[in-house]
Design brief:
This protein is globular. It has a single domain, classed as Porin, CATH 2.40.160. A hairpin with a 5-residue loop joins strand 4 and strand 5. The chain is 4% helix and 63% strand. The chain has a 16-stranded antiparallel barrel with strand order 1-2-3-4-5-6-7-8-9-10-11-12-13-14-15-16. With 259 residues, the chain is mainly beta.
């Protein structure tokens, strides 16, 4: 599966899913009842459709969950993913479609992915992939200005072990407005005055004798100097499939298999 965007290692390598004849993966957040995502796979183990649901915080919102996004994956004759089509459903009952295009180098390895939002002709972001060691870098630009650049480094060519880079944000400023003698204070984002923020997330992954990820110790430094530290613990079922990730926001997994 093309899951290079993961940071907290929510997925296992594609060989795990291919060898276990998986038809669907059900992902739950917070509790085993709070459905978050359904991943559908074909008989070759390729991800073909993903349905993502709105977040819920109590029983009432859980009953009223809605579909937020449906993604379809297209493949070439070599079974390599070449395009991801995201259909986004908004609260205003409007719908938008975003596309990701993936390309490969002469060795057949993933070289880049370009993400387009709506009908824009220029990519919203571009991710390039490097090998020996395996690393990926995502960049967003506006004309000649790079306002987002994040890189990922990987353990065992799959599990993220570091996620770092910077982004620019408009400074929030205050102003005064006077109307018929009344003064009102307001805030606005100054697009001509940008502030740079640095992020650096270091993930220490530990594996068991079978090569399965069993824990991740994460130290996240974000917005230059804010620090968050937490631990993730991974558990597996008897088939070697990921069953839960506990710590921070817990995640739970259930599976359906092809006959």
């Amino acid at each position: 599966m093309p899951v290079y965007g993961q940071v907290e290692n929510r997925w296992q390598p594609d060989s795990v899913y291919i060898n276990r004849n998986i038809k669907k993966i059900f992902v739950y957040l917070n509790s085993p009842k709070d459905l978050s995502e359904v991943v559908e796979c074909d008989k070759d183990g390729n991800k073909v459709r993903v349905v993502k649901y709105s977040a819920s915080y109590n029983r009432k919102t859980r009953r009223s969950k809605t579909v937020e996004q449906i993604s379809h994956y297209l493949y070439d004759s070599l079974k390599r993913p070449t395009q991801v089509i995201d259909t986004i459903f908004h609260f205003s009952n409007s719908v938008s479609v975003n596309n990701t295009y993936l390309s490969y180098n002469s060795s057949g390895l993933l070289a880049s992915s370009k993400y387009y939002k709506g009908s824009f002709q220029k990519p919203y972001s571009v991710t390039n992939y490097y090998y020996s060691p395996f690393k990926s870098t995502t960049v967003r630009t506006n004309d000649s200005l790079t306002f987002y650049q994040k890189s990922k480094e990987y353990d065992r060519d799959f599990y993220v072990k570091r996620f770092y880079g910077f982004y620019l944000e408009q400074k929030l400023k205050s102003g005064l407005a006077i109307h018929e003698g009344d003064t009102t204070r307001f805030q606005f984002s100054d697009y001509s005055d940008l502030q740079r923020f640095e992020d650096d997330k270091i993930i220490e992954n530990k594996f068991d004798a079978a090569g399965r990820l069993i824990s991740s110790d994460i130290r996240s430094v974000f917005m230059n100097d804010r620090v968050n530290e937490y631990k993730l613990v991974y558990s597996y079922d008897t088939n070697g499939l990921l069953k839960s990730i506990r710590g921070y926001i817990p995640k739970f997994y259930k599976y359906e298999f092809h006959e």
